[in-house]
Design brief:
With 529 residues, the protein is α/β, with parallel strands linked by helices. The chain is built from 18 helices and 20 strands.
């Protein structure tokens, strides 16, 4: 072990979006911060690579509506550090099945989306406009409640002032509905219902369970407002902007530095140690952008973590494993439905009933025979991703929890190909490169994606809010003074938005008796949410 240990105010473990956000905020507040990342490059699950000559492909996250809506990314002014957004003509589409030649799509303007829905089912266009008008009143307080610290204090009062008490109760009930029921109550036709339900399926909450309606509503309304934005040049461009922002404030980001332990003395974190034997002492804090099980079971010394915490971790639930297929295509995807050609994302393989059957397969340990598949047309969204006339694309779906072996992943990957081919005959003839990212591959590239779980733990209600990651130790603070969990394991959970890191930074600053508002040169870099 190195005899000359470095001493800093704060060591951040992990250079994913949350770790980099936390580092940027703390450095902007005047702290001396170093970020230690195990992988050879920063980014966590926001990285891009050229997997085939001329084709830039996002390795994990790709579309980022929550990043575009993130208050902390706005405050960090990432645009000034090189981040810009690209959008496809249509955010996403969802055919009813392989023979649907006129799939419903999310148009950039709510009036156009409504007109498309109205021609499909009388009354649904007007219902869409009412829903979007309601969102206009709820957007700010709802995002504040969902992304800000829990429990939310100002957001409910703002909503009450805007829509009134009785209507607020109706909205609360609406957001508690399963997305299947929500769609049935709001719309008469399947097209509008699919626009909601497909987005709910981005999380691991079954479409018949409470909480799925909220996810469907949130992503659908964000898509209507913002589209499904993608960073110009790839998800790695978002990472580069965060690194530049952190480094501009004096932070150092060091890659190839796997942290293997957190040293604790007198109940307080005082150093981290890397696999290479480097020891970094901290004056103020350690922030860990790692999974909850990794922090409590691997990084902390034996005897430090209370038995009750370890027992509760035994009930920690991961989200369902992901299998992703990357495609470099010599031409556009030949969709049966021409409307899908302009979509950034396409939801395939399941109508409303099909989503229920798919969820049942996952809950009963069955590799889905007819999987719900999310397809990304990245060149359609951002033309620089591949040569003119080609398409850089991907498709992913989920395995049941606990089913992560390569044989199951390869079976699901073949079924993803089949679903894509059913909706776009001849597409595989255009493939010049195909790669499969299995659950083990995802975890090897990012240790936080345990078993291919990309959300930091299930999004279902029993592991959200005060239960995230576990009861009694919710949020960023841990039983060890000066040690904070800063990953998607804490509220508000998965998605590229940086708010988990922001909350951890805020907690660290508050506990260090720094004013609750983070300031640099007199300017706030994080609103008092």
């Amino acid at each position: 072990m190195s005899g000359n240990a470095e001493t800093v105010d704060c060591a951040v473990i992990g250079a994913g979006p949350n770790g980099l956000t936390a580092a940027a905020l703390l450095a902007a507040a005047g702290w001396d911060v170093v970020v230690l990342e195990a992988q050879p490059e920063p980014g966590g699950a926001a990285r891009t690579a050229e997997l085939h000559p001329g084709f830039r492909m996002d390795l994990f996250s790709a579309f980022h509506p929550l990043a575009a809506a993130s208050p902390v990314f706005e405050e960090l002014d990432l645009r000034s550090h090189g981040l810009s957004w690209a959008r496809a003509p249509f955010a996403y589409g969802h055919p009813t099945g392989p023979t649907d030649g006129d799939a419903v799509t999310m148009r950039p303007d709510a009036a156009d989306t409504a007109a498309d829905l109205e021609r499909r089912c009388a009354g649904d266009g007007e219902a869409w406009l009412r829903l979007h008008a309601q969102w206009g009143a709820l957007r700010e307080p709802l995002l504040r409640a969902l992304l800000g610290p829990f429990p939310p204090l100002r957001a409910p009062l703002t909503a009450l002032r805007r829509i009134g008490g009785a209507e607020a109760l109706r909205v609360a009930r609406m957001l508690a509905l399963p997305v299947r029921r929500l769609g049935e109550e709001l719309f008469a036709g399947e097209g509008a219902r699919l626009l909601l339900a497909g987005n709910a399926a981005h999380a691991d909450v079954p479409v018949t369970s409470a909480g799925s309606g909220l996810m469907g509503y949130l992503l659908t309304m964000l898509a209507q407002d913002l589209g499904f934005p993608a960073p110009v040049g790839g998800a790695g461009a978002l990472t580069r902007a965060l690194v530049r922002r952190a480094e501009a404030a004096g932070c150092r980001v060091r890659c190839g530095q796997e942290v293997t332990g957190v040293e604790v003395s007198g109940g307080r974190a005082h150093a981290v140690v890397t696999a290479g034997g480097t020891r970094v002492r901290v004056r103020r804090a350690v922030l860990a952008d790692v999974s909850a099980p990794a922090l409590y079971r691997r990084l902390l010394p034996d005897g430090i973590v209370p038995g009750r915490v370890l027992a509760d971790l035994g009930r920690f639930e991961w989200d369902t494993p992901v299998v992703k297929v990357d495609y470099a295509l010599s031409g556009p995807i030949p969709w049966r439905s021409p409307t899908l050609s302009g979509c950034g994302a396409v939801h395939l393989g399941a109508d409303g009933d099909g989503l229920v059957r798919w969820g049942a397969d996952l809950e009963t340990g069955t590799v889905p025979r007819e999987p719900f598949v999310i397809v990304g047309q990245m060149t359609t969204a951002d033309p620089g991703r591949s040569p003119e006339g080609t398409e850089s694309a991907w498709a992913y779906s989920h395995l049941p929890r606990g089913v992560t072996h390569d044989a199951a992943a390869d079976l699901l990957a073949r079924r993803i190909d089949e679903v894509l081919t059913a909706h776009a005959p001849g597409v595989l003839d255009r493939v010049v490169y195909r790669g499969v990212q299995r659950p083990g591959d995802l975890e090897a590239a990012d240790a936080n994606l345990v078993g291919g779980a990309v959300n930091g733990g299930t999004s279902q209600l029993h592991q959200q809010l005060v239960f995230r990651p576990i009861p009694g130790v919710a949020g960023a603070r841990t039983p060890v003074d000066g040690l904070y969990l800063a990953s998607a394991a804490i509220h508000p959970g998965g998605g590229v938005h940086g708010m988990c890191g922001a909350h951890a930074a805020s907690a660290a600053l508050t506990d260090a008796t720094v004013a609750g508002r983070l300031r640099t040169r007199g300017r706030s870099v994080l609103r008092s949410w």
